Amino acid sequence: MESKKLAGEKAVEYIKDGMIVGLGTGSTVYWTILKIGELIKQGLKIHGVPTSKDTEQLAVKMGIPLLNLSELSKIDLTIDGADEVNPRFDLIKGGGGALLREKMIASISERFVVVADETKYVTTLGKFPLPVEVTQFGWEITKKQIERMGQINPQLRLKDNAPYITDNGNFILDCYMNTIEKPEVLSVQLNMIPGVVENGLFVNMADTVIIGGSNGEIEIKHNTI
Ligand SMILES: O=C(CO)[C@H](O)[C@H](O)COP(=O)(O)O
Questions:
Q1: In the beta sheet, which residues pair with residue 74?
Q2: 94 Cβ neighbours under 8 A, 6+ residues apart
Q3: What are the pLDDT digits (tens) for 117-171?
Q4: Which of 3, 17, 145, 153 is deepest in the core (most CB within 10 A)?
Q5: Is 12 helix (H, G, I), strand (E, B) or coil?
Q6: Cα–Cα distance for residue pair 205/105, rounded to 1 Å
Q7: Radius of gyration over alpha carbons of the chain, in Å?
């Protein structure tokens, strides 16, 4: 928790007065949102754009004024967590189920800052099962189509013994693979399957990655690729 807090709180240094800030989802960016709440009480003026209903609730509780994505054409900065990050600044996201909104918001952000503890930094993506958001309608067929791609084992995500339902009313298939050699290829292939709404690969989207270490140190990596 301490390394998540370190990374999460550090990210507020990228926020400037007047910015529109995309607010990610999860237990690392939680610390960013709490810190933003403190800064707002001290006079910081920003607007947030939440990536999930959970984040919306937290942001409201912290007194962060919010904007709706549909009112915007760009966002100055988005801060979000990740399940895995590789040295090419590719991410797996969606462990918390918010991948679609997270990707939409990151995609219109001038700067995308990722906050993570050191366990998330990996040489090759894929140990963490890749979340793929699919329509409820015909999800079994979508699952079969993903299986047919080979070496992928998609499993319907459950919560309390029932299918997990995203904020967008869809299901999630967690895809077990072990290694993802070419995230840029897999991402396109998955999104071509009818019934797939979005996948959790964020290919070279991060501009900055802030990594909190268990030794209390913070490492900041800038994307120059
Ligand atoms: O993608 C996400 C939610 O959909 C999260 O950012 C990701 O799961 C990391 O979460 P945490 O910071 O709790 O480890």
A1: none
A2: 83, 102, 130, 131, 133, 172, 199, 200
A3: 999 999 999 999 999 999 999 999 999 999 999 999 999 999 999 999 999 999 9
A4: 3
A5: helix
A6: 11
A7: 17
CA of 44 to the centre of ligand 1 (A): 26
What is the three-class DSSP state of 99? helix
Ligand 1: which residue has its CA nearest to atom 8?
95
Which amino acid is residue 25, in one-letter code?
A: T
CA dist 46 and 121 (Å) reads 30
Q: Strand 47-50 vs strand 20-23: parallel, antiparallel, or unpaired? A: parallel
What is the atom index within ligand 1 of the atom nearest the CA of 200? 1
Indicate if ligand 1 lies below 6 Å from the C-beta of 203: no
Is 133 catalytic? The answer is: no
Query: Cα–Cα distances in Å, from 111 out to 26, 76, 179?
Result: 19, 6, 28
- Distance between first and last Cα of the chain: 30
How many Å apart are CA 2 and CA 214, to the nearest integer? 7
Q: What is the pTM of this model?
A: 0.97
Which of 84, 102, 133, 198 is labelled catalytic?
102
